[in-house]
Amino acid sequence: VSSAAMTPVAISERIGVIDILRGVALFGILAANMRGFNAPFDLYDDISKLFPGTADRVAQGFIDAVISGKSVTLFSFLFGLGFAVQMSRAEERGSSVSFYPRRLGILLAIGLIHSFLIWAGDILVCYALTGFLLFLFRRRSQKTVAIWAIVLTVLPVVIVIAMYVATKFGAKISLDDPPPTAAVIQSAIQISRDGSYWAMTKLRFHDWVDFNTILPLVILLFTLPRFLTGLWVWRSGLLRDSERYAPIVKAVMWWGLLIGLCGTGVILSVRIWFAQPEPFVTLLNRLAFVITPLALASFYAGGVLMLAQIPKWRARLNPFGAVGRMALTNYLVQSLFFTWFFRLTHTFGSVGPAWGLVPTVIFFAIQIWFSVWWLKHYQFGPAEWMWRSLTYGTWQPMRRLDQHLLNHIPGYIG
Amino acid sequence: MSETLDGAMAPVASGERIDVIDILRGMTLFGILAANMRGFNAPSQVYFNIGRMYSGTADTIAQAFIDFFVQGKCVTLFAFLFGLGFAVQMDRAEERGKSISFYPRRLAILLVIGLMHSLLVWWGDILVPYALMGFLLLLFRKRSQKTVAIWAIVFYCSEFLITIGFAVWGYFHPSAPPPPKVKGLTPETLHAISVYRDGSLWGMVQYRVTDWFHVNFPPFWLLTFVFPRFLTGLWVWRTGVLKNVPAYLPLIRTICVWSLAIGLAADAVMAYFRFFTPPPRGGTLPGFIAQVAHGVSLPALACFYACAVLLLVQKQEWKRRLAPFAAVGRTALTNYLLQSVICTWFFHWTKLFGKVGPAMGLIPTVALFAIQIPVSVWWLRHYEFGPVEWLWRSLTYGKFQSMRKRIPDPPASSLEAVEA
Hints:
B: globular, disordered N terminus
């Protein structure tokens, strides 16, 4: 029993549509992160300072409206869901869940390496830390999980409104850092193009700290509620019986689209017409920023879920499933490739959001092709294989085994 | 020794009010008042550097005394006792087979009280952080001791990790401007003084919101400071040591001695960097060492205080002397709020805000607490709960609780009567 108790989940058990969704989200992650790969981190929230041209503004507006925040919402949601899948399977097999903290510990280590040696915009550290919090909910009732998810989701709305009221009454509250000076931007571009790796590492660490000063808030008010939603959705059985729940999924999807479009409308209007927004406009804008990602992410998730029911579409979407099944590998390769690509080609800081779409699309196409090919020959992506091996303390079989062999490995049976 | 054990041998039945916890909480409230005084009579901008306003010898010595022996230690104990109180309430609810759904409601009301306190009375409120972290504590209700211990240790260490992170960050800053060397007070500090001394009530509320936001954002200390102390309280209660103190006396004595030694050593390191070298800044090695020493001295000395009180209370004579503190501790919320209300209003109405240094500040500290003790004792002789505690309970359970005591205690010692 003990050997079976700690054995990883067999690959055949995986739910295809979750992988598809994760693969789709990874495209969005790449598109949203591109400006973090090819431009200084200080400009992440306002890339138009560096690229004020119309095409770039339109391209970035499109990415912000359709992708940014939505794909990461979806990705977080899927992490929580994946957690629930693993927990419920471990329980079904009557095995211990002690592998999970170890798994998170290794993810944390990978995330720290990624943050400090590759790219400052890492989300893995945040996910690993939130994962530990999620672990505390594994035996909590659906009601408890739902209450926490709802309260934490609504809390930012309350805070934003409270800030508005406080500002209205004369309090001086500012969340925005002063904009970076031109000299700081120039020096960052210079270091990223021609600086030594050590200089880059120092800059990266500096950016990482800047980026993570509100990490506790991000974890509690952004990532955890999404994780909890994923946990709740998996436990609800929605995804295991999609036909019965089709009406619910459809309703969530269309309401998500409607609310999301309204929110996007607000955000884009504020961006286009209000250079110096008054407090009330800022309030609307912030509310839209809180609500829109959730709404549009629900629309995307529902849309993919519905499309995947149609066989023709399922066949088209399946390659995304391959990307999603090796999400960690693909995520890491995206940062590794692009941070070095823009450095070695000396194009860091000169590829704007419009041109940035070209490498985004091309590279993701290659990732699809590569993932499909890889999973034809191997069971896991390389990073996933490493992650699993370190989690279970033994090298996991990487090559794809035929069923005959599989049946002879204890733990893969039943 | 044998005579002192006589009275103490009988283990305290759970379900009864645990005196020593109340005594400890009451004594802690004195420390809270002493540490907060500079927050009542000086602006938040100089809270951690009051020497900017008062650099005289007496003030320096008084503040050093508070910093080394009180500041951070008492709030550590207070947070610890909150976690412990949580564990006690969970235990009782379980014993009586009651649902624990009252607890989230209790926390929500504390949150509202805390928000009103922050907004209307004082920017340095701790009730909001306590209420928020209380919700997190609920998740650990059924977790094993090992899990609680691991989380507590990790969160204690996170403080050091963040210190290291910011130190390296400062070191790596590509174009860090040198920290501005301002002689005297910044314009912002002067503005704050004028608001809290001469401003209208409404102007103070407005400014307090800004103040509160700047003090609490980003809210690191909720997780790095408050939360591990809550977990420690939960953990300690569950070990059962407090339910049977006499059996653990040797262990408590050992912890008492060691925590004092470690705490004093860490304080000595802090003192060295504070008085004998240029004041350390973030990003320098001395600054880093001073911060780590600070982080070590707080839990160590807090632990010493707790153990020392625990040992003292074993002696009947000392128990009698310390008993009045239990009354303060049982009305802790009322007394905490009264401290803020009285002090902030006092310094505003008398226009003494910004004029009373740490040395002179000891006078209102001692005077106010000396009044709080007899008033609390008197109050609890006549009433079941402190006024705010009564309100808190009434709101929690959705109906007014009886406030008056059914049978008044004999005036001699209310505590022994409760115990008997």
